Amino acid sequence: MDVKTNSHCSGVNMPDQQTVTQVSLSATPEIADDIIEKYFEMGWTDGLPVVPPTKEKINFFVAALGGDRAFLECKVPPRWGGLTREILAINMIMAGCKPEYAPVVRAAMLALTDRPFNLNGVQATTHMASPLIMVNGPIAREISMNGAANAFGSGNRANATIGRAIRLIMLNVGGGRAPDLDKCTLGNPAKYSYCVCENETESPFAPYHVEKGYSSDQSTVFVLAAEAPHSVTDHQCNDPEGILDTICSAMSTIASNTSVLSGHCAVILGLEHAKTVAKFGWTRNDIKNYLFMYSGNLFASHSRSHKYGKVYNRNLPQWYKREPDSRIPIVESPDRIHLFVIGGGAGRFSAFIPGWGHMSTPVLREIGTDDNNQPDNCDSDSCKL
């Protein structure tokens, strides 16, 4: 099968609708296999088989995105390929999405390409950071996302394919492929898919986006350049201080980018831990303030007590004391700890998710709006300006 690349999207190595969607999936298995293999040969996959988009499917998804297939939603670094609605539709189909996921994928891409997030840096870094996509509001329930048991794992179509569509766009439109433009040393399983929602129905706290000023009937997407979740196990403590001290111990390491480059991070409270903490009347702010106050490391640990010379990490804020017994906080303020309640009802587990560092600012934006210029970045300790 002769496959062309899209002609109206400079720098994008993507199939053109008129040439690759003519063969129906109802054709013989041999032809269908040829199509899938062709996609591998052309470099349009993430290493796993994709769903070949047909003309009919593309038209249906473009309609779900608002029509006008040539409409340019954004440009995706580091190659700065143009993400038209047609190209967005094609990647969603290849990922296995349903049309009703379109508003979430679109909003996530607009958030990721907001300048403060620095997707260019995230795509090209040697660090293993990958965009964490967190969905809040009614749309998460409408499309049956999973924020409960095994939320970060396999088995939920919406979680898996929304995250995969975003990664395919980053590969196919942004050009973030190793070893060319993606220089990541080790990689990270989250670079296949990293999309979840908060467990709003069982959480004892108001949802994350409500904390940030949105109403409960609005839907939002939050993006954070992050490592994979670091497990926090505490089956012993039955009060807030004990549980949060355990989380503080997981946060207090000199090995993560967050500890040496500050920026933002996320804390995932498992449902059992969250209910225990809430039972004592603690609020989201109480939790974040406690984590901020009692996590961190001594400057002597950061400097290795000058064993390798008197070299300070140039990325530490100027106002941090460079004295051996000074505590260096993990982030600069409690509001840079983004707190979510996720997980099933059984198991006293939580998680810490370090960020990439001060080089990227998380972005929170509403889903379903046509405003491409929502100023919802988290640059000044508030995700909604």
What does this 3D model show about the protein?
This protein is of the alpha+beta class. The chain has 2 domains: 1-227 and 360-385, no CATH class; 228-355, no CATH class. The chain contains 14 helices and 12 strands. The chain has a 4-stranded mixed β-sheet with strand order 4-3-5-12. A 4-stranded mixed β-sheet has the order 6-11-7-10. Helix 4 (85-95) crosses helix 8. The longest helix has 16 residues, at 157-172. The protein is globular and about 65 Å long. The model is unreliable at 1-11, 19-28 and 379-385 (pLDDT under 50).
Globular, elongated, flat, extended or rod-shaped: what is the shape?
Answer: globular
Can you tell me the number of structural domains? 2
For the secondary structure, the number of strands is: 12
Helix/sheet category: alpha+beta
The whole-number mean of residue pLDDT values reads 89
| CA radius of gyration | 22 Å
| Largest beta sheet: strand ordering | 4-3-5-12
Low-confidence stretches: 1-11, 19-28, 379-385
The largest pleated sheet is described as: 4 strands, mixed
Could you give the distance between the termini? Answer: 51 Å
Please report the number of helical segments. Answer: 14
Strand portion, in percent? Answer: 5-15%
* Helix fraction by DSSP (H/I, runs of at least 4): 25-40%
The H/E string reads HHHEEHHHEHHEHEEHHEHHEHEEEE
